[in-house]
Amino acid sequence: MSIIYTALAVTIYFVGSLKLLHLFHMIKWSPVSFMKKWEAFQPNVFERWLIFFIGVFVLVCLVYFLARTIIGKSPFAFSLIAGLIFAILLEFRILHLPMELESIKKLSIPFIVIVIIGLRVLTETAQYYRFQLSEQSKVLMSEKSVIK
User: Fold this and answer.
1) What whole-number distance in Å separates Cα of residue 141 and Cα of residue 79?
2) In this predicted model, what pLDDT tens digit does every residue of 38-62 receive, in sequence order?
3) How far is CA 141 from CA 68, 128, 146, in A?
């Protein structure tokens, strides 16, 4: 049940932050503009954001499972490096920037920070619940081994 609450909180944070970044023109692209190209289905603005929210929720759930199973000792390092790489690659892909040093100036720092913070919350929570599960299993194993 913790995955649903965590994924929902991170998704609300991420989608809400993207909406605010777009509203205040801190990013030069719309998070839901890719849906304008769909020919078979033309959703309105609310439906676009709802579809985007569901997609981000599914992606966050996958990253949560990945973080819970793979991350070792330092979720901070993982979230910092993975968030930075993911945000930069995503902006390069969205803005169609050439791979040059001058392109770095066109990146949105608030977007990068939002991705890193969201990934940090997700990885820290996954690590916490992984630790809690291992502690509970140790307690259960010790209770079973006690001879009565």
Assistant:
1) 32
2) 767 777 889 889 999 999 999 999 9
3) 22, 20, 9
Phi, psi of 12 (to 5 degrees): -60, -45
DSSP string, the chain: -HHHHHHHHHHHHHHHHHHHHHHTTSSSS-TTGGGGG-SS----HHHHHHHHHHHHHHHHHHHHHHHHHH--S-HHHHHHHHHHHHHHHHHHHHHT--SSGGGGGGS-HHHHHHHHHHHHHHHHHHHHHHHHHHHHHHHHHHHHHS--
Integer-rounded Cα radius of gyration of the chain: 19
Closest CA to 52 of 18, 27, 28, 79: 18
96: left (phi over 0), alpha (psi -120 to 50) or beta: left
d(CA 83, CA 92): 14
Q: Which two tokens stand for residue 64?
A: 């949560």
| Residue 24 scores a pLDDT above 60 | yes
CB 48 within 8 A of CB 32: yes
- Cα separation, 7 vs 57, in Å, equals 6
Q: pTM of the full predicted structure?
A: 0.84
